[in-house]
Design goal:
Length: about 160
């Protein structure tokens, strides 16, 4: 898939002030991802997020969202996913929250990339990509009284021109 990033304003124009943060709640449907990216990209453009940063964020978000849909909700189209973003500390910080069974992408085992393709187990390369592309990646339980249900995954990408 390809997402078009809106063109930057001319150098003599300042971007319009952006909302302090971005928030969208959507269903666990891959078909809803494009609308999420369009809304997030428009918000990020107003917030002054560079194109290169946003490109990386969309790729990370794509992998994490697809994992929530396919593995967390097992393609149940009625699962809830909340995506939030803010610009802080020189980075675009993104949070995904769901109520799927608990999964920790930070501590999941990495695939053995030294093995030949034929000898590797299927899976894990997407999370490896996320770990190597995001500047930070963390997971927290959304409800400390029920740590086995739900996930909150946060990642950030530094603002680079």
């Amino acid at each position: 898939m390809h997402w078009d990033y809106p063109k930057a304003p001319p150098m003599n124009e300042s971007p319009a002030p952006a909302a302090a943060s971005f928030r969208r709640q959507l269903r666990s449907r891959i078909s809803d991802f494009d609308a999420l990216v369009q809304a997030l990209t428009a918000w990020a453009m107003e917030a002054g997020v560079p194109r290169a940063t946003m490109g990386s964020v969309v790729l990370i978000l794509d992998e994490l969202f697809a994992n929530i849909v396919a593995h967390g909700y097992r393609n149940d189209p009625d699962g809830q996913v909340v995506v939030q973003a803010q610009v802080a500390d020189g980075a675009l910080q993104v949070t995904l929250a769901d109520q799927a069974p608990a999964f920790d992408p930070v501590h999941a085992p990495e695939p053995d990339t030294t093995l030949s393709i034929e000898d590797r187990r299927i899976g894990g390369l997407g999370l490896l990509f996320v770990r190597r592309t995001a500047d930070t990646l963390s997971r927290a339980s959304p409800d400390p009284t029920q740590p086995q249900v739900g996930n909150v995954v946060r990642f950030s990408k530094k603002l680079r021109g």
